[in-house]
Protein 1
Amino acid sequence: MMIGEVADKSGFSIDTLRYYEKIGLLPNADRDPGGRRFYDRDILRWLDFLGRLRDLGMPIRDRVLYARLRAEGDSTIEARRSLLQTYRDELATRIASLTETLDVLDAKIASYDTTGAPLKDPKK
């Protein structure tokens, strides 16, 4: 796939893909005879994973570290597992906190529903 198709399918901009390649988040792309980047379809799975790491709040330095460890192969499995475990634990803590907040909001909304008072029209 050419870089434009990867951008369309992954949701990452062409500039981001070039930047990710420059800093080591993406492997260097193969080049066609005209020098244009050409990617294997497997890159989409990797970009999806990178997007998830970004969305959970992993800083770019740790994403680059993870990519470097991944490129080094099986000897780095424990280091990769440990890095992911750290962020997984932080995410689980955030989810628990958000779940508690949701419960509080649900209780508050339910209390308004039981007061019998008419709900205000948000357009007024």
Protein 2
Amino acid sequence: MAELPVRHIVIGTEALRTLQNNVWSERYVQAWLAGSGGGRVPVRIRYRGGHTREYPKKSYEVVRGGRTYHYNAEYDDPSMIRNALSFQFFRWIGVPSPRTKHCLLYLNGESLGVYLEIEGVEDAFFRKRGIGAGPLFYAVNDDANFSLVKGDSNRRKASLLAGYQQMKGTVKDRERLRLFISRINTLRSKQLGMYIRQQLDVDNYLRWLAGAVLTGNYDGFDQNYAIYRHKTKLKYRMIPWDYEGTWGRNCYGKPCGSDLVRIQGYNKLTSKVLAFKVARSRYKTLLMQFLGTSFTVERIVPVAERMHESIRPHIIRDGARKWSVSDFDGETRFIRNYIQERRQLVQEALRNL
């Protein structure tokens, strides 16, 4: 049996009661964390996620020594590998993304089963990669669509920063992002093109866009990303986040087809960028490059199979899983079929881009 790292969380009675009494609370409680080698370190812990907080198998956010780790139950994903596989794919195509590892999680001695440990996007994330990051924002809901109107209607936003949570930076940085969103919606023609080139790392954006399009993350364009401003380049860059709803399934695990996401993607900034021929040409080149190198059955499926095999013995014993073992066992084939179908759809769509 493949060995997985073990994480032991210990929470006192009162702290655990506080945590359980309000699953929607953003407040941390004190706890301890121990690994396979023993020895406990103090941590802070809270539940994380949106609709998943009401699931029987919950996800956690743990702050340890100033660094944040997310322990995702991946409850809706029958494969339990979609996030990990997606972030690996983004690294292949040149977009920094969180590191992941599957582990066995225990709470006060009780096994919670298999979890995915995900590196938080924060100062340590950028230091580790030698990236000079300035202000950082999380896109936490679908109002983070770079538009003047709300994501679910044509009503004008009360604030252009609706949908964003500032994780790092100043009030001036908030105003700068607000101004960026305003100007991409109001500038026209050459002025807009010049402004986008000045303020946005277009190559990073197009690679990020290609990653969301190829993996089929419908929710990845107007939420589920981080945006930061590089300290010296002084341009905005994108980082993917929450890619459970990918590779042919949505965020609830329902099969959604390989044609759910158009190759032009979504959100107002994407439409503005791709309005320029030079950007469309570069995007088309990137997509063709990825179809020939990274987005292939030969490159992806062996990685998916290794992830799958490493956790299968533990999945069998994980009674808190939503999906059956037979569902789990069919997932590498499901992902393979998605890649084959998606490749064909993208190749056809590229002719009209």
